[in-house]
Write a structure and sequence with these properties.
single chain, mainly beta, 4-stranded antiparallel sheet, 10 strands, 54% strand, globular
Length: 113
């Protein structure tokens, strides 16, 4: 059985942005069956709707400002901040100032490939 795996190096100008609609775009970076890194670019006012998935997720804010909700907790986060989402916990964001989130998932998100 072949394992899904990215190339060893990824270059921002070579990865296509996938338009998810409603002011959100995504780039998929390195991954194998255990881990995946993804960038999500948000326009001001864009909403990452509440959702859950069986993956652990850690997110780094690379620019912008967001209201983030994880379970029953909400916080405003900005450039340089981050958060952790345990598996199967509802979470989402509202973009207050245009910016980018860098997500790492374990295991990889098959649905992003």
């Amino acid at each position: 059985m072949d394992m899904a795996q990215s190339n060893e190096f990824q270059f921002e100008d070579k990865i296509l942005w996938e338009d998810l609609g409603n002011g959100i775009q995504r780039q998929v970076y390195g991954y194998d069956d255990k881990v995946m890194m993804v960038k999500a670019r948000f326009e001001e006012g864009a909403i990452g709707t509440m959702h859950s998935h069986p993956h652990s997720q850690v997110t780094y804010v690379r620019g912008g400002k967001f209201d983030a909700t994880i379970g029953d907790k909400s916080m405003t986060i900005k450039d340089g901040d981050g958060f952790y989402v345990p598996p199967n916990v509802m979470h989402g964001v509202i973009c207050l100032e245009a910016g980018m989130l860098v997500d790492a998932f374990s295991p990889l998100r098959d649905d992003f490939l």
